[in-house]
Amino acid sequence: MHILEKFRMPCAWRGSAKQISVDAVIPLFAVPALAVIAAQTLFCTIIIFVTTPVLVHYLHHNFLRFLLRTKFFFVWTIVSVIMLMLVFEITVVPLLEILPEENLVFIICVVGGIWCGYLTRLKADRMTQNAGQGLELGEGSGELCLICRRRTPPRAYHCRTCQTCILGREYHCKWLDCCIGSSNLRWYLACLLFSAIAFIYGSNLTMTSVCHPFILIATVLLPDDCSDVYYQLDIALCFVSAIYSLLVGLVLVCYLIYHLWLIYLGTTSNERRNLPPSSHYGESVLKSLSPIFCCKV
């Protein structure tokens, strides 16, 4: 059950030996390698985008979920953002098809998403550190948590990954490696908003630069013919990155809408999961996809 925990890589850091788990190293090589393979032909692109979610889900279900707090998904997020930014700024922008103000808007959205993601993690760390601070087992007011044996305020739920109770807990987002609760939900929603805009807008700018575009309305362009992108590796890599960005952006939009809907209902994702199945209505699809896209626990 703990196969990946047995493999560690020594790393020198300021005179001391550090241990880097294999699960955190895999995305460093896997993400760029998959992008290069997908950029070879259209067939490779289809195969990579179809099989990668399945393989990641298989890896998580059979190995990663047995680790207490794997960094696999968080490192995947960081590597993906860095790779997409480098491809855009180094390869797409020099094509001179993008206006400076368009690039500025894109960078602002990227920085906004990164900053809000950082604040989401920062608030989550403080939330975890302050949870139950100063209380001994069984002390305090509120209901007694059967796992951590502490009395918690209403609407606080235990997170097995963080090993504490989180007020207004939504779920543990492994892509950010932190728990989402009432203290950082607003920053998480802002991260989803800025990131979704950055991914979708960057995808459109990239596709209209490497493909033959057509004018939709005024200066709004959409890609038309992308049949010749695979004749040059760097252009194909831009095209693959654009598809990747578009898919990620659409997933983020779905989760943003889902959370806004939960806020409208006055409930949380964690509370919705504890309701009878008949009260979930059309949530079955999102619930079935959540282990792949958000890894709720």
Textual characterization of the structure:
This protein has 297 residues and is an alpha+beta fold. The chain has a domain of 191 residues. Helices cover 55% and strands 14% of the residues. The protein contains 8 helices and 10 strands. Strands 1-2 form a two-stranded antiparallel ribbon. Strand 3 and strand 4 form a beta hairpin. The protein is globular and about 65 Å long.
Q: How many strands, which pairing sense, and closed or not: the largest β-sheet?
A: 2 strands, antiparallel
Summed up, the helix count is 8
**Secondary-structure element order, N to C:** EEHHHHEEEEEEHEEHHH
List unreliable stretches of 5+ residues: 1-10, 12-17, 134-140
Structural class: alpha+beta
**Radius of gyration over all CA atoms, rounded:** 21 Å
Distance between the termini: 18 Å
Structural shape: globular
Annotate the secondary structure layout.
Blueprint: E1 8-13, E2 16-21, H1 22-38, H2 42-62, H3 72-92, H4 100-130, E3 143-144, E4 151-152, E5 156-159, E6 164-167, E7 171-173, E8 178-180, H5 185-210, E9 212-217, E10 220-225, H6 233-265, H7 269-273, H8 284-293
Antiparallel strand pairs: 1-2, 3-4, 5-6, 7-8, 9-10
Helix pairs in contact: 1-2, 1-3, 3-6, 4-5, 5-6
